[in-house]
Amino acid sequence: MQRRELFAATAATAAAAMTSPAVAQAPRILRFVPQANLTSLDPIWTTANVTRNHAYMVYDTLYGLDAEFNARPQMASGHSIEDGGKRITITLRAGLRWHDGERVTAADCVQSLVRWMRRNPSGQQLARQLDELVAVDDTSFRFRLKKPFPLLFSALASPVNPAPFMMPERIAATDAFQQIREAIGSGPFKFNSREYNSGSLVVYERNGDYVPNPQGRPSFTAGPKVANFDRIEWRIITDAATATAALQTGEIDWFEQPPPEIQQMLRRNRNITQEPIDPLPLSAILRFNFLHGPFDKKEMRQAILPAVNQADYMSAVVGTDPALIRTGVGVFTPGTPLASDVGLEALTGPRSIDRAKALLRDAGYTNQLIRLIGPTDILAPAAITQVAGDMFRRLGVNLDFVLTDWGTVVQRRASREPIERGGWNVFLTSFSSTDFMDPAGHFPLRGSGANSWPGWPTVPRLEELRDAWFDAPDLDAQKAIARDMQRTAMDEVPFIPVGAYMSVTAHRSNLRDRVPGFALFWNLRRA
């Protein structure tokens, strides 16, 4: 046999082997340690970020938000605007199917939006301006509004919890205050319910029928969502040292939130890449329960302000690196147009536990029980809860400090029961940068009482200002209203801002093209 014939025969044999079912390639698997256990599958019922991250794998949205915060069509192929902006018709892309094989219809989207509008702050505002939302036919549906709603497409693209994920009509018909139990979407990955084991393992499989949006480029939640892995496994590992060891040996590929001491150690490993998961800082808050004493009284909430040192809270999350810490933080995301220092004197002046003690006495505190609930298994909320526990102990209050897993906290904070029946007074948590960019999706800033996020503050002035913000003619007017909102919030204290931080994530250096923002899995590939 001539040399060229040998090479030709070898090439033919290799080609045959590559196409032979007997030697099919092994599935491409990505293993990931999320920030917390996935206890709720319902991204409308809960505002937990871990559920939002789960939902972006399984579900899709009508519009996506790109890195410049522009709304782009996603499931929608386009829209028309008539009657001076009061009649808007959205048309779906062709070929959309649910994971169970059924075709996505306009009726599915209408019911999904109705459920979303019950829980999302922007959706609630939209509902008040809505005369009718109906399916025109199988592929298009129409909004008929009392007056134009210029932020409609921004709301439909917003990743703020709860985001407007599309679900089959039969699932979306579930009451918005009851959890769904089925995770069937039309997104790039399918949820594997057979292998789901809360506290241990969550599995997603590539949706082979998914047709990525052909327009644009992958950018935050907009553009083509290309799944480069056949299987993604979320490994629930609550011990950071165990997760770190697995990352270093390659047993896992991505550790979403390594704590500060782990970050320092990983800097020496050239096989690991560490970077901010979001280019903007994440905000953290201390949330009060307005329904029960002692923090149903404004003066009691105000009394805590002199004791809060934002630097202490943020150092507990990210360590002492000043590049990762933001203090002097108000109610809006630092570095965004609406952020300001208006009304923050109570947080930026001299810190004093003694001053806070005196204010508590003046407000009528007489050793009432204060129950602080928090997690042990999710980095930022666990760290800031410990700082708050120390603060309340130094204040000398009658503290009941209850620590559980994050999933239990999420379930428990929804309870409106009084303290003697298992209720709560205070919890702490953190938010993605987009959540606090403006009043549209800023649910801790709502003052609508029973319709508000857990804590349920009734602050009519906040609601009036929020309505005015939606109608503001330009950015300058929006900024002026936002300053008034911050001033009001620092007086009424629905929550206390405890700072902001740059959240660092760690992954194997052979992972490429991660989409910045939060834990997003499309476009990600292994080099």
Q: Key terms for this structure?
A:
single chain, 527 residues, alpha+beta, 20% strand
What does this molecule look like?
It is built from 16 helices and 21 strands. The protein is an alpha+beta fold and 527 residues long. The protein has a 7-stranded mixed sheet, covered by helices on one side. A 6-stranded mixed sheet has the order 14-18-13-17-15-16. It is globular.
The profile of the biggest β sheet is: 7 strands, mixed
* Shape estimate: globular
Summed over residues and divided by their number, the pLDDT gives a mean of: 93
The portion of residues forming beta strands comes to 15-25%
Distance between the termini: 38 Å
Structural class: alpha+beta
Strand order of the largest sheet: 8-9-10-1-11-19-12
Counting DSSP E segments of at least 2 residues, the number of strands comes to 21
| Unreliably modeled segments | 1-23
Radius of gyration: 25 Å
Helical fraction equals: 25-40%
